[in-house]
């Protein structure tokens, strides 16, 4: 099969997979297979740039961070919708609409209404021109919105090219959101990294699409559902809202399967009640039902007020809140040592699920709300997802209600704790967090091992949370009931798993692993193979997996781009971990921070600042980190950077410190070969052209990247000039 045919085949497969999953709700390949095929397509496109297609599924991976948001005027204003919480107001609205249309005498039949679920996300207007995604805008002030196309392109539910004939200009209005299951995963990862969990999916989504770097949007797996229209160049495309939605679905744009039509107020109220009974079983947050007149001509006749359309209204469901008894408070310790209070409640049915635990967020809020053990508390699901204690029913407080005491020492290891901010020692009500500072704390060790082995870190297939618990349980005494609870036979030899390096020594304990419950030969061999493969992941994966405070995936990659290996990172001074932050300071402040010498400007950005870099630097040189790094070295783990591009290249190299983009086909190199060679000479090779690009190297059949470089005035080299520079 030719490369071109395979590329087209993969694009078709991935586009059909997206449609099957997001539009038809009938997936036919797994996420893992999708990722594998996407990676194959990316490799082929990199080797054959002449096959570039702006609507290829690989274009969803996200490009370079944008410099800032541009504001774009909406072709059709995005007005807000009037809200109501009352059935009688819905009936009054229906009566007004019917009366006005009847009075105009233009429509013989009464209006038909459409009821759409109101997803609790962020409104987005997506414009297609000639069937290809042109831009995506936030609502903004209704007249102008921020261009968030860079983030929207990463969302698999948003087609980059429409599947069929569409008007030359087609604007789709809809809601971008984070599914509940993804929100839970994101918060679990944030808590494991020592970060505050997001309060609700909507705020998390809004913050995600407003980041300049599209990486977060890609990693957080946003979704999209269409619910309306903006500009449509062909008036005959659809005459009603229901017809418009059907045509969007035909084109591959996701629409809600819960949309229903209604002929009168009674039918609307029934639709609102019916959806209320099922909405808590869905994988996304909804907070109401949007009711609109179906016919576009009737909508135009009804018109608008200064703020909202007269032909549309949103019924908002009240947030469900129930009282229950607070039985006790657990003090949970995460992998960075953060101690979080969690309420244990008398079970209560809330928003479709039985709730027994709820977040108390931090001890400062506990004091502000005066929450006590034994209180009757009001519990609500934030964003319909996370149960949280909203307050106390004071009149039902029993005499024996006990104040919640924040632990003075770590509840697991009895180690020292630090308060955030430090002033909370004197003013407890302002406390936002407390943290166990003992890196050897067993609770932290367990959480760190789980995180380290995870897919986005060292990606050790077969070493999940339950397997880690089973292996660690072998260290319990033979008569310890925890062995039995985790399926560990009493005579199973102890398998060490206390430090990161112990993971890479599990192969020496194959016989002991085989004695564990549900650990057959094939599973154990696959586990050992996965461990061996993980040794070569490189510095960024190791740093991102160690649970270092303030070092997540992106910061770990940034550090690996700035330093060639672990030794270079450990040799760095504090200020070298935060070059951009230092450069932004006044000179006196720089000198005070770093000593007597003012650092030179650096081109790299680590993501660390004057508050966070000292914390990271201190950890890297701590006893625990030194022991971990020594163990990893002895286990044969590669601690060199896979991302590093030498900033200190030979002074005569024309590529030192330059940002380079490759486009088109070159006779002398494949793209991977040239990328590796340029990076060795100090270049940073990126995939997209921007104002920060220094050089574009253009071969035959160079396309849009060359055009963009010329429009921005970026220096362009042909292959002859490249070869001359390379000597």
Describe this structure in words.
The protein folds into 6 domains: 3-61, Orthogonal Bundle (Helix Hairpins); 83-316, 2-Layer Sandwich (D-amino Acid Aminotransferase, Chain A, domain 1); 321-436, Beta Barrel (OB fold (Dihydrolipoamide Acetyltransferase, E2P)); 442-534, 5' to 3' exonuclease, C-terminal subdomain (DNA polymerase, domain 1, Orthogonal Bundle), CATH 1.10.150; 539-634, DNA polymerase, domain 1 (Orthogonal Bundle); 659-726, 3-Layer(aba) Sandwich (Rossmann fold). By secondary structure, the chain is α+β, with helices and mostly antiparallel strands. It is globular and about 85 Å long. The chain has 27 helices and 24 strands.
Radius of gyration: 29 Å
CATH fold field value of the largest domain:
D-amino Acid Aminotransferase, Chain A, domain 1
Mean pLDDT: 84
N-to-C terminal Cα separation, in Å?
Answer: 37 Å
Instruction: Enumerate the spans where pLDDT stays under 50 for 5 or more consecutive residues.
Output: 594-603, 646-651
What would you say the CATH architecture of the largest domain is?
Answer: 2-Layer Sandwich
Number of strands: 24
Which range best describes the helical content: under 10%, 10-25%, 25-40%, 40-55%, 55-70% or over 70%?
A: 25-40%
The level 1 CATH classification of the largest domain is: Alpha Beta
Which secondary-structure class do the elements indicate? alpha+beta
C-alpha geometry: globular
Supply the number of structural domains: 6
Q: How would you sum up the major sheet?
A: 7 strands, antiparallel
Strand content: 15-25%
Instruction: Let me know the CATH homologous superfamily of the largest domain.
Output: DNA ligase/mRNA capping enzyme
Q: How many H/I helical runs?
A: 27
């Amino acid at each position: 099969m030719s490369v071109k045919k395979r590329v087209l085949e993969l694009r078709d497969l991935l586009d059909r997979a997206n449609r099957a999953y997001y539009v038809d709700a009938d997936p036919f390949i797994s996420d893992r297979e999708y990722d594998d095929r996407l990676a194959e397509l990316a490799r082929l496109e990199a080797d054959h740039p002449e096959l570039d297609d702006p609507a290829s599924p690989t274009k969803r991976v996200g490009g370079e961070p944008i410099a800032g948001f541009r504001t774009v005027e909406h072709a059709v204003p995005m007005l807000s919708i009037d809200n109501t919480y009352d059935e009688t107001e819905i009936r009054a609205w229906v009566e007004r609409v019917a009366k006005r249309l009847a009075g105009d005498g233009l429509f013989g039949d009464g209006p038909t209404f459409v009821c759409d679920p109101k997803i609790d996300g962020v409104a987005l207007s997506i414009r297609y021109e000639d069937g290809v995604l042109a831009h995506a805008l936030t609502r903004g002030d209704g007249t102008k919105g921020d261009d968030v196309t860079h983030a929207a392109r990463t969302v698999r539910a948003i087609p980059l090219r429409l599947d069929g004939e569409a008007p030359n200009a087609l604007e789709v209005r809809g809601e971008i959101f984070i599914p509940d299951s993804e929100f839970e995963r994101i918060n679990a990862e944030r808590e494991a990294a020592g970060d505050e969990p997001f309060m609700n999916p909507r705020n998390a989504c809004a913050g995600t699409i407003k980041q300049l770097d599209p990486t977060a949007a890609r990693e957080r797996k946003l979704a999209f559902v269409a619910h309306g229209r903006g500009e449509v160049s062909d008036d005959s495309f659809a005459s009603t809202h229901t017809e418009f939605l059907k045509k969007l679905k035909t084109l591959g744009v996701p629409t809600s399967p819960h949309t229903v039509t209604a002929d009168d107020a009674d039918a609307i109220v029934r639709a609102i009640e019916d959806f209320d009974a099922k909405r808590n079983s869905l994988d996304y947050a909804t907070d109401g039902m949007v009711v609109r007149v179906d016919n576009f001509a009737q909508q135009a006749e009804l018109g608008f007020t200064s703020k909202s359309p007269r032909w549309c209204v949103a019924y908002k469901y009240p947030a469900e809140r129930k009282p229950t008894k607070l039985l006790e408070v657990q003090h949970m310790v995460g992998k960075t040592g953060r101690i979080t209070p969690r309420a244990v409640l008398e079970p209560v049915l809330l928003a479709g699920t039985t709730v027994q635990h709820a977040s108390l967020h931090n001890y400062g809020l506990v004091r502000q709300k005066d929450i006590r053990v034994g209180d009757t508390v009001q519990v609500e699901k934030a964003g319909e997802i996370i149960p949280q204690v909203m307050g106390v029913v004071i009149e039902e407080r029993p005499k024996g209600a006990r104040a919640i005491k924040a632990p003075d020492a770590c509840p697991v290891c009895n180690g020292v704790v630090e308060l955030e901010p430090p002033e909370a020692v004197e003013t407890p009500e302002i406390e936002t967090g407390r943290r166990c500072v003992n890196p050897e704390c067993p609770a932290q060790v367990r959480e760190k091992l789980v995180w380290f082995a995870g897919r986005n870190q060292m990606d050790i297939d077969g070493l999940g949370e339950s397997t880690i618990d089973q292996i660690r349980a072998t260290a319990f005494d033979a008569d310890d009931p925890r062995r039995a609870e985790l399926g560990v036979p009493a005579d199973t030899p102890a398998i060490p798993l206390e430090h990161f390096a112990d993971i890479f020594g599990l192969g020496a304990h194959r016989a002991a692993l085989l004695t564990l419950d549900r650990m057959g030969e094939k599973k154990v061999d696959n586990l050992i193979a996965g461990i061996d493969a993980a040794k070569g992941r490189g510095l960024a994966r190791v740093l991102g997996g160690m649970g270092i405070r303030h070092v997540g995936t992106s910061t770990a990659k940034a550090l690996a781009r700035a330093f060639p290996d672990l030794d270079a990172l450990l040799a760095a001074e504090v200020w070298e971990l935060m070059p951009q932050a230092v450069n932004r300071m006044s000179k006196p402040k720089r000198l005070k921070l770093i000593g007597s010498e003012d650092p030179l400007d650096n081109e790299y950005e680590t993501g660390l600042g004057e508050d966070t870099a000292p914390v990271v630097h201190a950890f890297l040189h701590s006893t625990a980190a030194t022991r971990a790094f020594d163990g990893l070295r002895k286990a044969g783990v590669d601690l060199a950077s896979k991302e590093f591009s030498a900033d200190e290249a030979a002074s005569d190299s024309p590529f030192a410190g330059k940002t380079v983009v490759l486009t088109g086909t070159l006779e002398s190199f494949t793209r991977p070969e040239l990328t590796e060679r340029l990076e060795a000479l100090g270049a940073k090779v990126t995939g997209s052209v921007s104002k920060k690009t220094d050089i574009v190297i253009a071969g035959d059949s160079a396309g849009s990247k060359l055009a963009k470089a010329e429009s921005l005035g970026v220096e362009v080299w042909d292959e002859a000039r490249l070869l001359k520079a390379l000597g």
